[in-house]
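Morning!

This is the sequence you dropped in the shared folder:
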Amino acid sequence: MSARFTFVRPESREEIPKPDPAFVDVHVLDMNHAWHNAGHDSIVWLVRRLAKDEEARLARTGATVRLISYDVRRRTLVPDAPRGVAVYVGTGGPGHLDPRLNLRDDVDAGEILESPSWEAPLFAFYDAVKNADRAMFYGVCHSFGLLCRWSGVARPSRRTSDKGGPSIGIVENVLTPEALSHPWFAKLAAQLPDGRRLPIVDSRHYDLLPVSEPFPPGVTPIAYESTEAGAALTMIEFARKPDGTPRMFAVNHHPEIADATELGALLKQKLDSGEVSREWYESRAKLIGALQERSDREELRLLAAGYSFRFLLRDGLREAIDAATGSRRGSTISTAL
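The structure's back. Tokens below.
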């Protein structure tokens, strides 16, 4: 892997590293509340791999990609407001999307004991990202639900037995008419067999149901769980770059999960290190078989995951690296003058 990558996990506000021209920062807002998961580590692996892919760009700046992981829910750690080109990722996590409703510590129910004190600073941070034209935020699962609550466009509804309980495994999402005419997602639609349906990795205990339609200006629904009326929203865009690429975007599934080989290696590493139990490992390893079951579906899943997360993060990192190059060049010229 790339030598131009470093990982930082601050334990307090004082430990959050300051901006440094030696680093191109990627900020990960970890919503897992210290629960064992594969999603956060998958994001770390992805950023590490992207840093390796961009070694030539990084070499031109002499910079290193620095991933800073913020424990939002346990330690109320949230990044400062964006300055210039900035890349943020929001992870999945357990429990109700309203922290006030997490009143017990029950693994089976997927709920946790927590203080809601992190919500106000997190929502203020979302405001800052929305208002910063050069900031990018890409969220998955729990972060999707929080963005829906922050924006007021959708409300969480627990998936009861009437809907078959939690949605777990490889399922389909359906692109909206707005997605079919979207500058970015129309490219994905053009590569889908029927132009609309795409397989995704789901682990969803809560649906996000639209509060009202049409959506507010600037907010674009990209996908639902099905074409049925009242179906749950699963992809949404809150802000867009001038070139038509999503700038603030989230999905209610797990596009950060890599292919079966990488997922298997990640899970094995967690087991061998003693971080997780054999039971936890085996429950997650079941997904590997599902990913390997049909190569054609897995190819489509990875394509959809690219357009809904990986390609966005890749391009965002490139923007941040190029901005660092320009900043350094400007600093050199200023010094020379």
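Headline: The chain is about 40% helix and 25% strand.

More detail when I'm at my desk.
O.
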